[in-house]
Amino acid sequence: MPTSAHPARVHLLGGGRDDALLVPLLADALTGATRVRALLVIEADDDESVPRWRRLMDLAGSADADVVSLVEGDRFAPEILDDVGALVVGGGLTPTYAHAFADIAPLVRERVAGGMPYVGFSAGAAIAASEALVGGWLLDRVPVASADAGEEEDELLVIPGLGLVPFAIDVHAAQWGTVTRLTAAVAAGLVPVGYAVDEHTALVVTDPDGDPTVAGVGAAWHVAPDGRSAVVTRRTARG
Predict the structure, then answer these.
(1) What would the CATH number be for the domain defined by 10-236?
(2) What is the rounded distance in angstroms from the CA atom of residue 200 to the CA atom of residue 128?
(3) For the whole model, what pTM was predicted?
(4) Every domain of the chain and the residues it spans
(5) Angle at CA 37, nearest 5°, toward 32 and 40?
(6) What InterPro entries does the entry give (predicted)?
(7) Residue 78, class by beta-carbon neighbours within 10 Å (0-12 exposed, 13-18 middle, 19+ buried)?
């Protein structure tokens, strides 16, 4: 990730539906931020996500935030980042988010390196990685997670992400059982290292070369290679 005189502010949330638990994490991530824009990638018949994110932004103290949606299969143009002071990227089908951001990934990296806060929620967290684990539940046709967590992919899929953090991110960790998916990906060398983040939990990165911290009620499961296997360490806000 490019370096800058400004500290990176990257908050990666593992998902969740409980507003009371999510709002404090969003409010902390957006403290002092102005010109907030939330970007969503939604299904054509989704009439719930935009109102929900407008409500979350309001509750988090960013009532003036723009909430912009794109239909799955389309891509964001560079102009979407014009006059943006802080970027929030929501959740949904992770491969479609990776596709939607493919054209503007270098610009997002540049803006975050220059000090723009980035808040990724679920899919928005997963695509923040340099090497993004965006789906799948099979490794060499052997199950390593529930098919329900596959994001409409079968084999584990790792593709270039936004490059905001040097480790892979998986989400809904304890709730969907994706710790095993990330562990398999690290052990197989598909990604070098990673964190699987629980719902209602944030992995907070203020220095891309340092250790992130954890906020919220759950855990971030750190997965590191160990020979032909991997070591998992559970980290929480309490240490």
Answers:
(1) 3.40.50.880
(2) 18
(3) 0.95
(4) 10-236
(5) 135
(6) Class_I_gatase-like, Peptidase_S51
(7) exposed
